[in-house]
Amino acid sequence: MSCKTNGDGMKIHFGLINGANKYLTAESFGFKVNASGTSMKKKQIWTMEQEAEDGGAVFFKSHLGRYLAADRNGNISCDAEERDDGDCRFVVQAQADGKWAIQSQTHGRYLGGSEDRLSCFAQSMGPGELWSVHLAMHPQVNLFHVGRKRYAQLLEHELAVNADVPWGVTSLVTLDFHERRYLLKTSDNRLLLGDGSLVREPTSEALFTLEFVGGKVAFRDCQGRFLGAVGPRGSLKSSKAAGKAGKNEVFELQESRPQVVLRASNGRNVSTKQSKVSTPFIHSFIHYFFLLFVSMMSPQCLFACSFTFAASIRSCCLSVSALFCEIHIVLESLNTILFNKLPPNIQACLLPSSTLLFFFFLLCSRNRLAEAAVIQSYPSLQCYKLAVGEPPSRVAPCLYAQYF
Description:
Belongs to the fascin family. It is found in: Cytoplasm, Cytoskeleton. The chain crosses the membrane at residues 285-309, 316-339, 345-364. Residues 20-133, 142-253 form the Fascin-like domain. This is Fascin-like domain-containing protein. The protein has 404 residues and is mainly beta. The chain has three domains: 13-135, Trefoil (Acidic Fibroblast Growth Factor, subunit A) (Trefoil), CATH 2.80.10; 140-255, Trefoil (Trefoil (Acidic Fibroblast Growth Factor, subunit A)); 259-403, Trefoil (Acidic Fibroblast Growth Factor, subunit A) (Trefoil). Helix content is 3%, strand content 41%. The protein has one helix at 322-334, and strands at 13-17, 23-26, 33-37, 46-49, 59-61, 67-70, 76-80, 90-94, 100-104, 110-112, 119-122, 130-135, 140-145, 150-154, 159-163, 173-178, 181-185, 191-192, 198-199, 209-213, 216-220, 226-230, 235-240, 251-255, 259-264, 269-271, 278-281, 290-295, 300-304, 346-352, 359-365, 373-378, 383-388, 398-403. It has an eight-stranded antiparallel sheet, covered by helices on one side. It starts with 12 loop residues before the first strand and ends with a strand.
């Protein structure tokens, strides 16, 4: 139940809701803890950590970076800067309805209570000692299957784990918090059932509870079975009976990054089909869905296409023409921040000019360098100008970035 991540996985942040529908809250003043929050805001967000060699103990960290603790008398505090103290060690017992019972590993008592009357002194779990888990994250994610190392995507009548790259809206899954459990919603607003079918209306068969496994998640259906990938297509359906989730039932939640379509003024879209950058297409296909990266530390933006691998901009040989050679020198001298974990085959970098009056986008293909493009921006006109294979002084029609 670690919040450590691998690859592009996210730290899992969540809120804990008691039977009175109030959130466990870590107050900023005095590091006090109560259960009085009516909605999930900063003070109600927690992360869960686990030592790799630990046999089940977890640690709850507040938004202040302090750890939740329970002493031998059941008193609750959240002022520990280190988790070495035995009072910070808890065990999570997931129930069939998805709720958690949180037990002190050191003292064997259960966390419960309401408002400012919290304690960890109950010898057995009851309704007051059960907590619902509400993820504190953007609900639209990409599901990465740990066992098959593939992403879930929407096919015609099912969700299947068969995508190498989470590209396009079909790879988008929405985790909808409903009746204190979760619905898995596809991009066309259908809901996944335990048997793998997709429906429009929520039912009990569409509700899943979350279990954290080493910083990743497993989905348990209303019958206690875990969601997993089945068959050669990797169809998502419940298969394994109650017990611990195995490698086939564990998923990594990854942030769904914004993707855009680059559209020229003639209504045609920039495409990377057959490793080329061009604007021949009107309809939106997977070939020209660009992933948009924006650096907050420099005036830099990168577009990435849907192919699997790419060299960084600095490793691309841009000596096809004097223009590209000159831009290559600018790249080296700027010492720009490069995104090293990009999966696609095309990148674009936003470069400031010496006059700071306009910017250049450099779109460079790893395989077809002659198809690289330069886009010139005029802030006064609030638009970008595209010049494919031409010097910046010769300007083509405007290029627009459109979210889908």
